[in-house]
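User: Here's a chain of 260 residues. Predict its fold as tokens.
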Amino acid sequence: MKNFKIHLVWFTIVLFITGTTVVASNEWVLTKYEGSIFFEGKELGNHPNMPFLQKDGLTYIPIRSIENASIGFTRYDSANKNIYIDMFNSIDGVGGSSNLYAESENALFHLRINSSKKRYNVGEQLAIWSVLSNKSGEQAKLHHGSPLLHYYVQDAKGSIFGETRALALRTSDITPHFQEVRSWSRFVAYQYNRGSSPRYDLEGGEEIFKKEITRPLHLPAGTYTIGVVAEYRMASDDPTKSIMDLPGHRLESSIQITIE
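Assistant: Prediction complete.
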């Protein structure tokens, strides 16, 4: 794992804590690791009730420290005793062969959404990515939200969920050879699962959601329309016009996949 100067072994269950020495079984004696550990640039909290441990040059960290650092979700499935660790910013498949795609264009941009296949297994990474290219060959300046390319998902019942975007507008200079590539965002699946949970907004609903949804960053079985949208306004040299006075542009492409 990059940026690690120590071997990071995935996680241990701490049974007893006595001072700085932890006895995990009749054969294992682990000592508390006093240093800091950074995962994907974020520091994991070394809490007294969830300490980092080490033995023979290997360091062990509690699974829950990943979620506590807002890096991802960790879930335990008691039915089959599986532990799932899903990272927010893991990059699912980008590039390669696209056996399923859709495209659209306007005077400035060409937008294409790609998928390596049409059918996925539950929990499988979605190899979906989109490419926005300047087809005009001209320089342009845009006002847009962040990110410029954003995804949404629509299920067979017509329910639509999209990813959260920054409200503040950004201004970008688009070069003649501009191209932006963005992979599927797992936050869209999280928004879908949370929004589809009938008890999420009730008292204690978040804890129920955590127990019932073992993989909140993955879509459940079903047929979905996955769409990508680019929304923007062309900048103007007229100082009397505000951004909201400028005409808006929307470019959208979508594909249909099945998760089974």
